[in-house]
Design goal:
The protein has helices at 6-13, 56-67, 121-134, 151-154, 196-208, 228-236, 250-265, 296-303, 316-323, 328-331, 336-353, and strands spanning 31-37, 40-46, 74-80, 109-113, 139-143, 172-174, 177-181, 217-221, 241-246, 270-281, 288-289, 308-314. By secondary structure, it is α/β, with parallel strands linked by helices. The chain binds adenosine-5'-diphosphate (ADP).
Length: 367
């Protein structure tokens, strides 16, 4: 069967009317960025930031209408707004963070986050997820790094999610870990321009509209940084805790501190810090060279009263396996590098089992 055309989709959407004035969403110029990939369709619906909640019904109506088209098996519509995120996020003290609804079937959701990109967050997330699976936990990983979804490549997955009932997408799988990523739905080259509410809506759908089944733990690979989109996510997703990944340089640690503060602001316990590219172990002679001032993350953890979880070496095998779609925990489980990730996985498993997911922390008050 042929792929649905953008024109055909626009024709269907031309029948969906805005509740305020009865004009169609096409007439009002609300639809943008229609992407068709096989039987999967995605696009954005532009709405004023303040109306995002009120127009959820309209979003669903668009989604349902397109999903009902011949040749379409899934449709993802995200709300986007011209102006940034909900206005009051910045000034809310932690105590007023909204309740986060649980996701049925998922026992715990943990975020892997970093203050900036390129520090090895995704590499850590996929190896942690595979490690948790190797320990016997039913595990999933959600690539929320929608600006540059790298998990399809790192997990060596290139297929598209299918849907059995036309409603929920089946996640893909690597080494027993269920994987979902925006990267499965859009072409790798497609530039994705996301604004606050759109990000939130995409993430909520990837959490709720995916057939995760029963999971002990879902690892969320967060978008890097501490902007509004990240804050909104940290606030909306029912997180049991956050793992912060940083390289040892001062500049990266400065960003890691921002990430710690961001999660604290929204009452998400910090499970600890991972120092990635911590040192260089020479593959020939085994000599350990501390290329960056090693130990910065440990000092940062002490200052912020959070746990120091692991130091992962800067290592060619980690880079090759990660970029080659063969996470080292799975492809070379007998190496010391894989052992470092397994230790991390054990620590996280124990923290999830424990009475509290992380050390208590002092409340930070924002003026
Ligand atoms: P982020 O998610 O923070 O942007 P990635 O996990 O995508 O970072 O990693 C960025 C690059 O660094 C990738 O090419 C990855 O293979 C590499 N990398 C990550 N961690 C290590 C490590 N410990 N040793 C060597 N290369 C690494």
């Amino acid at each position: 069967m042929n792929e649905p055309t953008v024109e055909a989709i626009r024709r269907v959407l031309n029948e969906i009317r805005h509740p305020d004035d009865g004009k169609s969403v096409i007439e009002r110029g609300m639809v943008s960025g229609i992407v068709v990939k096989g039987k999967n369709v995605g696009f954005a619906l532009e709405v004023p930031a303040a109306d995002a909640q009120r127009l959820e019904k309209l979003r669903r109506a668009c989604e349902d209408a397109v999903r009902a088209m011949e040749g379409v098996s899934s449709c993802t519509v995200v709300l986007t707004a011209e102006r940034g995120p909900p206005p009051d996020l910045q000034s809310k003290p932690a105590a007023q963070a909204p309740a986060r609804p649980e996701v049925p079937g998922i026992k715990a959701i943990i975020a892997v986050a970093s203050g900036k990109g390129g520090v090895g967050k995704s590499t850590t997330a996929i190896n942690l997820a595979c490690g948790l699976r190797a320990l016997g936990l039913k595990t999933g990983i959600l690539d929320a790094d929608i600006y540059g979804p790298s998990l399809p490549r790192m997990a060596g997955l290139s297929g598209r999610p299918t849907t059995a009932d036309g409603k929920k997408m089946q996640p893909l799988e690597v080494a027993g870990v269920k994987v979902m990523s925006m990267g499965f739905l859009v072409e790798e080259e497609t530039p994705m321009i996301w604004r606050g509410p759109m990000v939130q809506s995409a993430l909520t759908q990837m959490l709720n509209d995916v057939a995760w089944g029963e999971l002990d733990v879902l690892v969320v690979d967060m978008p890097p940084g501490t902007g509004d989109a990240q804050l909104t996510m940290a606030q909306k997703v029912p997180l049991a805790g956050a793992v912060i990944v940083s390289t040892p340089q001062d500049i990266a640690l400065l960003d890691a501190r921002k990430a710690i503060n961001m999660f604290r602001r929204v009452d998400v316990p910090i499970m600890g810090i991972v120092e990635n590219m911590s040192y260089f172990a020479c593959p020939n002679c085994g000599h350990r060279t501390e290329i960056f001032a090693h130990g910065g993350a440990k000092a940062c953890a002490d200052t912020y009263n959070v746990d120091f979880l692991a130091e992962i070496p800067l290592d060619i095998a980690i880079r090759e396996t990660s970029d080659g779609g063969q996470p080292i925990v799975v492809s070379r489980p007998d190496t010391t590098q894989a052992a470092a990730y397994m230790d991390l996985a054990r620590t996280i498993r124990d923290k999830l089992r424990g009475p509290s997911a992380a050390k208590p922390f002092p409340k930070i008050v924002y003026a």
